[in-house]
Amino acid sequence: MRPYPATAFLRPLRRGLLNVRRSRGTFFGVAALFGVVLIAQAFLALGLGTQVFAVRSEFSIPLLTRATDREVQQFFASARQLPGVSSVEYVPREKAMELERAAHPEVVTLLESDALNPFNDTAIIMLTGLSAYDEFAAFVQHPYWNNTVDPAAFAAIAAQREEQLSALQQARWTGSVAFLLLGLASVALFLVVLELTCRSALGRQQDLFVERISGAEELSITLPFAVEAVVLLSIALLLSLVCAALAAYALPSSLPVLAEAKRLIAANTPALIVAEIIAVLLMGCVGAVLGIKRVHSSPHGTLAFI
Question: Other C-beta atoms within 10 Å of 226: how many?
């Protein structure tokens, strides 16, 4: 194979950039790609957020009023030594009432008519995950803590666990659907690139015919269309990133899945940018190659989807 000089690469590159500037379909192409890329990024963020979304395995353990300070401190020290426990917090009964007032103000208003505080001192125990629940439940229900832990806590933590398992199942199912839709959006994006390449090539069929009969190599013919596709994809990607950043800023971080997605994306921004750049280059180049072949093999100038 004869050597391919650098100028032979630069000329098709300049032609591709010039085509983007002069083409009347540039705005349409960017708009079509922008819409699909934005949808794909939304599915990606949703999928990532649900995959890393760890349901807060937080359990409230009411303590008996007759428990001594020594027994309470011993319970807290033993709970912190469990491998599945990430944090233990002591909540006095006054703060417990304030928390209940914030969560259920109508209930606390009724209770405030009584001079006595009906809430107990509480231990808020956060687990590393629901997989640590069995060990945690066995610890709380151990007879050694009969004078420390309110027996009503046993049924309460079992109910909390069922709620958290249900939430975790829903998160995983949502993530699977999001990644499936992401795959479909990626296919749709590739088909849009293919169609735009075919339309661009059909508008220059005579130029392509002249290049081929003059002995031009296939690379020099395809490269301008690859450059055009990559530039359009890059513009669409930049616009979608700006819109995604604005949406992430505007949406409340109180949504657990959104908060996890923000945290994960912020921690892996360089890797995600590199991955998206590689995807843009591959999709643009492959779409250009297949689009040119499609037009070349169609004597009547059939488009990609026909």
Answer: 23
Using CB atoms within 10 A of its CB, is residue 111 exposed (0-12), middle (13-18) or buried (19+)?
Answer: middle
pLDDT tens by residue, 151-163 = 887 888 888 888 8
For the chain, the structural domain boundaries read 6-53+169-297, 64-149
- The letter for the amino acid at 257 is V
**Backbone angles phi and psi of 89, in degrees to 5:** -125, 135
CATH of region 64-149: 3.30.70.3040
**pLDDT (mean) for 179-195:** 92
pLDDT digits (tens, 9 = 90+) for 281-292: 898 889 888 888
pTM: 0.66
Rounded to the nearest 10 degrees, what angle do helices 269-297 and 205-213 cross at?
80
Tokens standing for 62? 């009411």
Give the per-residue pLDDT at 256: 63
